[in-house]
Structures are given as C-alpha cells and as structure tokens.
C-alpha cells in the first residue's frame, strides 16, 4: 500500500479518496459497516496477516475513517466512522440527479 500523502495541500477529501482507492481498505470499510470488529476477524475478511491488517487499520484510523476502542481485556475493537466518508458522498452528489 502506498504511503499516506503528507503534502499540506492534500486535503481531507483527497485523504478519503486515497484511502478507498485501495481494494483491501474498501473490504475493511465494507466489513466494518456491518459492525465493530477485531483485527483477527478483519484479517480473515481481507485474507491478510494480522500485522498487515493492523498496519492498514492504523492508517485508516489516522485518516479518521476508523476509531479504536480498547476492551477491558486489552483487545482492540475497530469501528467505522461513516461521517468520514461524507466527502465522497458530497463529491458524487454533484454528478447525480
């Protein structure tokens, strides 16, 4: 996966589009749209190692697309932040009737 762009002109919209351009990230977003999940389950969905999945989730969290909650037992649970996808909806609505 490509590095997260750091150019200050690279706005929030571009960050969201950049994140969803990756097929594995879209699978993660689709999965989390169904409900909260742990790394192991997400790894299975995208057919990747836990390490790779954690790395992806970390990037999605930095971009504001995913939030992380730590359970009492120390497990990390990931949740989609659907409001972060608003830039895509706003942009597409310009072209839809």
Automatic annotation (TrEMBL):
GO molecular function ontology, one term from the record: DNA-binding transcription factor activity
Q: Which residues cross the membrane?
A: none
> Which Pfam families would you find in this protein's record?
HTH_5
Superkingdom of the organism of origin: Bacteria
Q: Please state every residue range assigned to the domain named HTH arsR-type.
A: 15-97
For this protein, the record's InterPro entries field holds: ArsR-like_HTH, HTH_ArsR_DNA-bd_dom, WH-like_DNA-bd_sf, WH_DNA-bd_sf
Its protein name is: Winged helix-turn-helix transcriptional regulator
